[in-house]
Amino acid sequence: MRSVTATLAAPVSKARQAFLRDVLEGLQSQPKRLQSKYFYDAAGDALFQQIMHCPEYYLTRCEMEILETQSAAIVSAIRAVASQADLVELGAGDASKSIHLLREWMRAGIGNRYYPIDISGNIIRHLQDTLPEQIPGLDVQGLNGEYMEMLARSGQTPGRARVVMFMGSSIGNFTPEEAMGFLSEVRRQLRPGDFLLIGFDLQKNPRLILDAYNDRQGFTRDFNLNLLTRINRELDADFQRHHFLHYPTYDPSTGACKSFLVSLRDQAVHIGGSIIRFRKDEPIYMEISQKYTPDGIREMASSCGFAPVKNFTDDKNWFVDALWQA
Ligand code: AVJ
Fold first, then answer.
1. CA 207 to ligand 1 centroid distance, Å
2. Which segments constitute the Histidine-specific methyltransferase SAM-dependent domain (predicted)?
3. Which of 28, 35, 225, 262 sits between 20 and 30 A of 303, alpha carbons compared?
4. How do residues 222-276 score in pLDDT, each as one tens digit?
5. Ligand 1: distance of its center to the CA of 51 in Å?
């Protein structure tokens, strides 16, 4: 039985097809690029956990400080306008930061429904299992899928406002133009009076930013190289990781923090039946983590149809959770 199934072609899932299409399209463009949303397979999830514990990666600690110390203030700013509301979180992850807000949310009696949205089914199952125990009375309605589709699915309960959370500087993985398109789309799904709570990493000493994406232990390098390993495994490819150099950059004049993998030699790589050629020193653009200024954040709000309500920052002023109203 085993040998029979082994000779059958592996089922070509829709997800694999989309992954292959995106990878080939990206590597056949000029300049070559890959999409950072594919970083997060099981190994990528584990590496991102390691990154979050690195001394150089300040983002998580800054936002944790904001939510630990200012969740009550965030909830009262919302409560001042909306007496009852549902919470929706885009890219909820393990919710280790959001849990502080959820506690205040329940305490304030503003609502008990929480819709965590995540592309990882494992994450959603985990939240569904653990959160109701940690926060008695919380009604967790996990949604596994793409942000916009699931946001539409979460729907609007008549008589209740919605508060959409998009934390952790996930918005940074869009270019400013892409971010504008994405947030305008979120706005279209909301009604006047609804809220968006969104995390932005701020422009600061360029050295600090570059170090955060170039940790000494090499987790960020492995996080980038892991996508090549994932492509090898899932798309029948033959990348050799040691023939690529991880090259992180930060441009303080634009706030663009970009990472590249640079080919160390002329080489050809087979991917799902296609051949991709690399010249020595040719880069693959892997990820952007855009950094913003307070002015840039305000401008982003108004060009996407939101009114800024209040900014919540950490003690060092390195990170902002901005509360906007539709
Ligand atoms: C998960 C998107 C917030 O861009 O800072 C960390 C991902 N990339 N180190 C970020 C990441 C390299 C991270 N976000």
1. 17
2. 21-325
3. 35
4. 999 999 999 999 999 999 999 999 999 999 999 999 999 999 999 999 999 999 9
5. 9
Classify residue 280 as exposed, middle or buried by CB count within 10 Å of its CB (0-12, 13-18, 19+). exposed
Gap from CA of 90 to ligand 1 centroid (Å) = 15
Q: Which of 166, 173, 201 to mutate to test the pocket of ligand 1 (most atoms within 8 A of CB)?
A: 173
Give the Å distance between the CA of 55 and the centre of ligand 1. Answer: 14
- DSSP-derived secondary structure letter, 237: B
Contacts of 123 by beta carbon, 8 Å cutoff, 6+ apart? 92, 93, 94, 116
Ligand 1 site: residues with CB under 6 angstroms? Answer: 51, 59, 168-170, 172-173, 213, 220, 223, 287, 289
Question: What pTM, to 2 d.p., does this model score?
Answer: 0.93
User: What's at 155, amino acid-wise?
Assistant: G
Q: Is omega for the bond preceding 31 within 30 degrees of 0, making it cis?
A: yes
Residue type at position 137: G
Q: Output the DSSP codes for 7-26.
A: HSPPP--HHHHHHHHHHHHH
